[in-house]
Write a structure and sequence with these properties.
Its EC number is 7.1.1.-. Belongs to the complex I subunit 1 family. The chain crosses the membrane at residues 6-26, 76-99, 119-141, 162-184, 190-210, 239-261, 281-303, 323-342. By secondary structure, this protein is mostly helical. It has one domain (3-344). The protein is 68% helix and 2% strand. It has helices spanning 3-38, 54-64, 75-91, 119-140, 144-175, 180-185, 198-211, 223-226, 236-261, 270-305, 313-344, and strands spanning 102-104, 107-109. It has a two-stranded antiparallel sheet. α7 (198-211) runs antiparallel to α11. The longest helix has 36 residues, at 3-38. The model has no long low-confidence stretch (mean pLDDT 90).
Length: 345
Amino acid sequence: MDIAFVIEKFVLVAIIFGISLLIAMYSTYAERKVAAFLQDRLGPDRAGPFGILQPLADGVKMFMKEEIIPSNASKWLFMVGPGLAMLTACIGTAVIPWGSPITVGDRIIPLQVTDINVGILYIFGVVSLGVYGVMIGGWASNNKYSLLSAIRAASQNISYEIAMGLSIIALLLVTNSMSIGEIVANQHGWRWNVLYQPVGFLLFMVCAFAETNRAPFDLPECETELIGGYHTEYSSMKLGFYLFAEYINMFVSAAVMASLYFGGYNYPGMDWVLTQTGPVIGPLIGTGVFFLKIFAFIFFFMWVRWTIPRFRYDQLMHLGWKILIPLAIANIIVTSIVIAVIEKF
């Protein structure tokens, strides 16, 4: 086994994991600042300049709070739930290409942990596992509100995974690949998939809101009905893990949407920039562009949360089953017809 290859992968995994945690931590700060801006307030402004140290203060608070486990809870499952939610949130980053390969001497270092040929299936598998952390935590709490929240989360995820999968089928018809690395590489310059699959992108984005339990699809955490949802009984860093997992899921969803539909690390004039900046700086510029796209999606997630009220549960199911799924099927049919006509002529 190539030791240098193993070291490269360990370093890349450590960097991605650290960036994921950092973005999740400061997403809580950005969430408050965006909400304050939209509501004509200041937001956090006490901990450090412009409140920039507020996430650190929140982290210290989480660590210092008393750890409480309800007497009637299933103790081991109660502890497993937050860890599983955090684990499934983090492993989704493994197949995302963060930039074009870097060339150092005679070594080509891909900025992707692994480029499996079924990367999209891997993402869907991780998304499907994510609900188990919520389900286990809600059930193990032995709280009726937590259990109702877990049931809501499971039914919501199942409902919207179908429409999300159907929206991806139309994309696969266009790209002829299930490898996220290949899909991103084929979007060179301005050949972004959103131009060929605008309806598919809208469907995928709406389903991403539902899969990450973000407003207006935050029914599992509906405070007015369920107190706090599946994490009502949680405190200290167990609660922190659930909150962190939501923001990491939002980060991964933004990265997947940017990769599949907005070219990932590709941008107009990329070839010229690579020739001018070299085999190391050039790919890192592409990585910077990719993160700008991710931050734009994260801002959109937050903007929607503080702009649109949440659905009622019957409206949520109606949208998923009676609107999004038929629309996704129609998109597949239209895409198939268009591709068949193009290939014929």
